[in-house]
Hints:
This protein has helices at about 1-5, 10-25, 55-70, 80-95, 100-115, 130-145, 175-195, 200-210, 215-220, 230-250, 270-290, 295-310, 310-315, 320-335, 340-355, 360-365, 370-380, 385-395, 405, 410-420, 425-439; strands at about 150, 165. Strands 1-2 form a two-stranded antiparallel sheet. The chain is built from 21 helices and 2 strands. By secondary structure, it is mainly α. The model is unreliable at about 30-55, about 150-170 and about 215-230 (pLDDT under 50). The longest helix is centred in the middle third of the chain and has 23 residues, at about 230-250.
Amino acid sequence: MRLSVQYCSEELQKTVLIKALDMLPIRNKNWSNGTSIASVPHQVIGNASLNSIDRPNEDEWKIALFASVVVSLRPKIVLHNKKQILEMFINTLLGKGDSMIKEVASQALGSMINKCPVEVDHAMLGVLTLDQAIHSVLEESLLKIVGNHVPQDPSEMTSNNAWSAELGDIHDDIGVQIQAVTAVAWIGKGLAMRGHGKISDVAMLLLNILRSSSSVCAMSSQNNNCKIDMDEIRNEKYLLAQAAADGLGIIMKDSKTSLNKDCYACIRPLYKQRFFTSMIPILALAIRESGASPSRYMLYCALAHLISEAPHIALLAEAEKVIPYILEGILVLSNDTVNKGHLQSFLLALSGIIVDENYGRALVAEHVSTIISRLVVVVNYPYSMIVRETALQCLGAMVTLPYTRIFPMRGQVLKAVSKALDDRKRSVRKEAVRCHHVW
């Protein structure tokens, strides 16, 4: 459906949209006068829990099909009753339906925000402006589900309208909160691509969720005599923090299914560079302030998402600030058995800086001892062949640095590479032979 609608002309897309609206299972005759479709049970904030919409499977897939149409519409196509459509997608992604349906609904929300007009003709019934759509989706729905407050102390605020996250009641449905965080990330992606200022608030929300995972330890020390299962809370906090870290990856990563040039997304040039450059100082400060708290690990996972999708030019521009955190990230993740891809992201970023003759090598020369100390550890990383191979490639590239810088580390490198010569994977052994030869 996405591909079919993409190749339609503007007039054909209008026709498809009308047919898709008629197909919706919860469309009713009151849509024309602006009546909300949210007559079904919705998320109740506070002590109440989510009463999910128990639709038949066929109806859920109809909504997913409609979402696929919305994702591929041209920006000039006017969506009437937009508030009701937004509510329908929110109800769908927070329900108990298929995960694929929830993902498509989240993407549709991001697409609608991305293509929403800044100003509208008041004669158009049910058409929202961008600010109205943002308020309806975020402030009235998703942010309440995640749990939020606005700090009263101005020193706690990062911007005039900053949102900070204070995770909701521990008895809330963690699955609903995770899905809400994912939807917020897709909306943030839509805002970032069009260069809207609210992306900074969305980013701070995700960052504060990452920080909040450290509050579990404080809770644990204060609730030793309570009947609350702190292990379960830690697990829930970790899952929510992981969703926030992945959310930053959603904002940075190119999507093949929505919010791209083929889907007529509004894309401002260099949006990735701007988002990456603005997030690095904030994330670096959060890492420094985290100390040895549990949130430190998730902050490095978030940094790996940013670095892996950042344009090479933007990475080099921030290399002086980023290199110390890349090296510490390699150390923190060197024993991680789950998120092997994050360790690989750090190594690839380091490799890109090492091989840059104009600027990168001069910076790397200042950190030779630390870089080699980190690389010789992950050369024998047992959980990923690609990580071991990439670490050997980085060590091989280090020989291009001044001889006086690298010679003191020669014995340490050869000792580590000698062990890799007996690796169980042939590609790693071949890379170890090359590295051993150049050293």
